[in-house]
Write a structure and sequence with these properties.
Layout: H1 4-36, H2 53-59, H3 62-95, H4 101-108, H5 110-113, H6 116-130, H7 144-166, H8 171-179, H9 184-213, H10 216-221, H11 229-239, H12 243-269
């Protein structure tokens, strides 16, 4: 009689092999990029030794730091707006029942599934033909077109995360607060919002990460005098892939991974397994 454990292993090893191959395919190039960002040579195919010179040049590059400041400003403002709009949308869809409720909820999630190239072209036409964005505005108002575009695809992620958290809320707690004399707004802020806190943080981190990393929509909505971090990296890569480009990519990758990890941990704490 065959060993059940051996038979179970024989059935599982092909799947494990596929998962291992997929992981190597996805992450080995990233590891190579990180390693060669410390390469003491301008050639990215030959290892000459360890150095931090490229990171020193990176932090001494004024244009690159300005692009990073633009991206951080856009991500911060768009995240704050997306957090408010997405939370209000989720609360409205959860609390009220009206004709077209499900349809409206589906429309809110439409930017999640629509290809970014389509959104980018749509915003390009919108800001160029319908509502031209005034030039010469003071910073950060000159980033307004990009911020509006980023809010449009960021707030649905916040709404989905918050709405998933609201599904586990016991409405009797809010009713009890109302019976004890709390106003609707007081019950909302003292009972509902504390329950939503993990999902609010997770949604904000997701929105911030999406905005910071976005290239396609930003490329279509940015003006000639506005350069963001991903667009600047793309411009650097067009000429040549140098260790400085690897250092920039490593920095952006580290920020993204850190924020995504924190967001996923907070989602797990909130009992939200997936979007």
């Amino acid at each position: 009689m065959s060993d059940p454990a051996l038979l179970d292993y024989a059935r599982r090893w092909p799947m494990r092999l596929i998962l291992l191959g997929t992981g190597l395919f996805l992450y080995v190039p990233l590891l190579i990029l990180i390693v060669f960002s410390f390469n003491d040579s301008r050639r990215t195919t030959v290892w000459r030794g360890f150095t931090l010179d490229w990171y020193q040049k990176l932090f001494g590059n004024t244009d690159l730091l300005l692009a990073l400041a633009n991206s951080l400003m856009i991500a911060l403002v768009s995240t704050l707006i997306s957090l408010v709009v997405g939370t209000l949308a989720a609360l409205a869809l959860w609390r009220f029942r009206f004709p077209g409720n499900m349809l409206l909820g589906s429309l809110f999630t439409l930017p999640i599934v629509v290809p970014e190239i389509c959104l980018g072209v749509a915003f390009l036409i919108f800001f160029a033909e319908v509502v031209p964005w005034p030039a010469g505005l003071p910073w950060p108002l000159n980033l307004g077109a990009i911020i509006i575009a980023h809010v449009s695809f960021s707030f649905p992620f916040v709404a989905v995360v918050v709405r998933a958290r609201l599904a586990s809320f016991n409405r009797d707690q809010e009713e009890a607060a109302r019976d004890l004399g709390a106003s609707p707004w007081r019950a909302l802020f003292d009972v509902v919002v504390p329950h939503l806190k993990p999902s609010l943080i997770a949604g904000a981190l997701l929105a911030f990460t999406l905005s910071l990393d976005d290239f396609v929509i930003t490329f279509f909505t940015a003006g000639p005098d506005t350069v963001t971090f991903p667009v600047k990296v793309y411009a650097m890569v067009r000429f040549s892939v140098t260790p400085e480009v690897n250092a920039v990519s490593t920095l952006l990758l580290a920020i993204t991974v850190l924020l995504t990890f924190v967001a996923l941990r907070l989602q797990a704490r909130a009992g939200i397994r997936s979007l």
